[in-house]
Amino acid sequence: MKYSPLFSCIFFLLTAGAYAAETSVVEIIETKIISQQPWYYHGWPTVVRCANGDLRVVYSGGRDFHICPFGRLEMMTSRDDGANWTMPRVLLDSATDDRDAGIVETSEGTLLVTSFNSIAYQLHLNNPERLLQKTFGDGTLEVLKRWHLMDAATSQAQKQTDTGHWMLRSTDGGVSWSKRYRVPGYSPHGPINLIDGRLFYATSNGNHAAAHISEDDGQTWQEISKIDLRPGEMHAVQASNGDIVVQVRDKIVSATGSEQNTSQIVSADGGKSWSEKQKVADGYPSHLLRLHDGTLLMTYGWREEPYGVRGKYSQNHGTSWSDEFLIASDSASWDLGYPSSVQLQNGELLTVWYETPKDSHKAVLRQSRWRLNL
After folding, report:
1. Cα–Cα–Cα angle for 62, 327, 174, nearest 5°?
2. Would you state the pLDDT for residue 206?
3. Is 132 among the domain residues?
4. Does position 11 have pLDDT exceeding 50, yes or no?
5. Residue 38 lies in a domain
6. pTM of the predicted model as reported, rounded to 2 decimal places
């Protein structure tokens, strides 16, 4: 079909206007690095805004690399909406690699921090040509020496006993912390508060995904249902209508290969039963947040060029999601993501993620303060 020049011009103006309207939804105010120890690799953060206005970010620090034996859980605090952050404080440093830190402040004012630990670094330790030599080059032998010394500090049996899914509690605003205790599974960003004051935790233990409830401020957890999702990295939010939305880093295998994305299910009965799965984004993994006006926000990493962090919003409790928008698109490599977001008192959004800079393997924590203009 042949269109007139006038029709083509009108069509261009309409589509360009729609695109401009969508891209103008996000206004980036400031983006900066917030980690303070550039000689370490930092990964997989979660940020939370506490009732007193403090921001807390927890993450895996003290690291050599994406996978290594030195990972430990650290926390930084901001009392001025992310303008400044304290030096990191170590919350947990086990005999193995402590990874993926989540945090939530409960309705009782308790801080809960989650993580899992792993001995997966031994795959690289025993096969340095697999990845380490490409990363560390002439320094590989020195790196291997330190890794072997750390690995030798405990027996293999001790390390295997030590690994698992963990939680820490603080009832005094993060001044002191409980001993770690085991929980049924993990998700990168931890559990969430429900409107009725209980806690909900969508977790994976590597074999299956499940929904858990805590009625004692996170001290114990009861499984209420199996979740028919890939047992991967999940996060949840309760919409203002009471529905619980769970998203997962999904993987689809086909004859042409495999692709990863974010899929979603919804429960209208408190997590006892779940809807059919639907794909909601190509990026992964996601973090979910309910804004002051009830809008749901999902943010996620984008591990294809242009690398960065993207998001979508929903104004119908997660039934459908907006077009994708960019929060950052200037990252240097695929080794990034796991963003999480909070809403500040003035309505602005603050998102924290990790990324590996150009010409370095030492990932940093990066933060963006932005507005969602709806």
Report:
1. 40
2. 87
3. no
4. no
5. yes
6. 0.92
